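tool=predict chain=A
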Amino acid sequence: MLIAYTDGSTWKTNPGPMAWSVVYVANNEVVKEMSGALYSGTNNRAELIAVTWAISLEKTVDLVVRTDSTLVLNIATGLWQPKTNVDLWERFYDSMNWREKRGLATQFQHVKGHGSDPFNRRADWLAREAAKRAAECVPYGEAS
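tool=predict ok
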């Protein structure tokens, strides 16, 4: 089974320059890494984009998504209902429906942020670095 470690980050302010990352792991080895960024957004949006990327970009195998975001985990597993970022949750649900229609299982697990898991730490580092690069592209106070 493929495991996707996801993380989102803002740089220095929240909201602020934001980024997200996904680290796909199989047999305890990194098989693919991705990150993306925008000039401005919140940490919660970045965390949700990371999870949505993980499930929408993996189209061939069952997937375990590991996130350190309690908010994203609880909404993804149906414990809570989304109250904000509805546009992104619609994308998340569309991606989940696509996977389900193709018989691909998707599980969600919590991983302690900033803990000892090297793959979670890698996802965190990738997201923070991408947010830092996004911050370098626009002066603070001018992001919208």
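The chain has a mean pLDDT of 93. The CA atoms of residues 18 and 103 lie 33 Å apart.
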